[in-house]
Amino acid sequence: MKKLIFSALILSVLLGIVGCGTSSGSGSASQPNTATPPADQAASQSLLDKVKAEKKLVIGTEGTYSPFTFHDASGKLTGYDVDVVTEVAKRLGVEPVFQETQWDAMFAGLDSKRFDVIANQVGIRPDRQEKYDFSKPYSVSHAVLATNKSNTTVKDFADIKGLKAAQSMTSNYADLARSNGAEIVAVDNFNQAIDLIATKRADVVLNDNLTVLDYLKQKPDTPIQIVAKNEEGQPTAFMFRKGSTELADAMSKALDEMRQDGTLKKISEKWFSEDISQ
Predict the structure, then answer these.
(1) pLDDT for 56-96, tens place per residue?
(2) Structurally, what CATH architecture does the domain formed by 46-140+235-272 represent?
(3) Phi, psi of 246 (to 5 degrees)
(4) For a surface tag, which of 1, 9, 109, 214 has the fewest beta carbons within 10 Å of its beta carbon?
(5) Rounded CA separation 15/18 (Å)
(6) Does domain 143-229 bear CATH number 3.40.50.620?
(7) What does the pLDDT look like over 120-133, one tens digit per residue?
């Protein structure tokens, strides 16, 4: 008899537990769902939606590449690219937030989602287009070849075969130097490259014509000279992770508006006394 009573008590307890679990489940169905949205739903949010929701655009840039992105005498980050992307962010209704890093680390930073976009004179190339999205171009640059002023033998790009070229390893200019047979001496930024050329620890540097001219304007005593210029222009644009089409399109639309109302030309002339945006 005692065994029967004990068994009945155990069964009663078990039924009570099951009943509570059922009651809880049915009750939650009738109450507001406060659970975290599924991961796939969060992943479906576009980068543009994220930027607008957070009201900030995180921008990767060097901060050492005058006159495009650098620090002025007061320490403020400024330059052509900085001004352009700041105006674009304003037209999107968000705050520009700059994250500075070396050129060769910028692509990895974009891949790891440290930035939403890169604004640093990134050239549009087929190999990059396979992996990244681009906005419409906002400038066109021309590569130049610079040497120490004492040089009398290097007069064209074909003359750099076997010479040491001071370049950021993953830049367009490093690729151009390699294609002409130069040995790459890795540097973190343009200023380091100029130092190597000035002290004859490297033979040549390839870079944007406006960058070299601006440097010589600021430091006319630097023993550097331009010996050749590539007349074929290289369009540059904002670069995004693949799949960021909506943000790329929104920033391209802002650039189109800036062209139409003269803002892009005005920024260009502020830095270069001419329109380099096309």
Answers:
(1) 999 999 999 999 999 999 999 999 999 999 999 999 999 99
(2) 3-Layer(aba) Sandwich (3.40)
(3) -65, -45
(4) 1
(5) 5
(6) no
(7) 999 999 999 999 99
